[in-house]
Amino acid sequence: NSYYDATVRRPPAHAALDGDIACDVAIVGGGLAGLSAAIELTDRGHDVVLLEAKRVGWGASGRNGGQALAGLACEQETIEAQLGLDEARRVWAMTLEALTLIRQRCERFHIDCDWRAGYLSLAVNSRKSRDLRAWHARMQSLYGFDTRWIEPSQLPSWIASARFHSGLHDPMSGHLHPLKYSLGLARGATELGVRLFENSPVTALDPAATPGGSLRVRTRSGSVRASHVLLAGNVYLQGVAPVLESRIMPVGTYVIASERLDPT
Description:
By secondary structure, this protein is an alpha/beta fold. It contains seven helices and ten strands. The strands form two sheets. It has a six-stranded mixed β-sheet with strand order 7-2-1-10-9-8, with helices on one face. Strands 3, 4, 5 and 6 form a four-stranded antiparallel β-sheet that branches.
């Protein structure tokens, strides 16, 4: 019951798992992590089965804010203090690689996810403008990250609001329709040969009665025997992996969408 769900035409549901099958890797969770892993593993020649408890993109992957931004949810100085500058640069480069990967997958699988390129970081006064410009200069100097500085006189051509003083434009980041993107990844994964089952909540992980240390992933009406199991269910793994439950905390953020407003 979200804006994204109301503005997408879902394909028919994939069948639920019925019976016992085997694969190289079983993935639990049909969100961005599970679908991305399924594509990567299949590209590397592995036989993959993906189990989704509800529908693809049902969780946060299909109803998040849609912002695809460079960096993490903290300043780079925080990462530098923990890991050092060289490793912090690797972390930053990984976030840029993720943005490139989104574009590549949209092109590869013909995913129309309403991508809007560009992101504005804005300062509301001169003091905050100095801080933002210092960030802009530091990221260029230490990370080679180029953004465009926007002077106060230029800002009205970027955003029609008197609230903001100045800002910077990041052309690499952007915004997408997360459910359309998730559904596109699911389609791409199945085209590559991933066996995807919806409405197939996992009920247990058991050692399989076969040599080699494989696991059996059980659902209500079937099971998957796999050499490796990837848990990509985020906060929805209750009862499946108890050892993880105390280490995962659900966090909710919300965006409210109105009806289309008159520009004037």
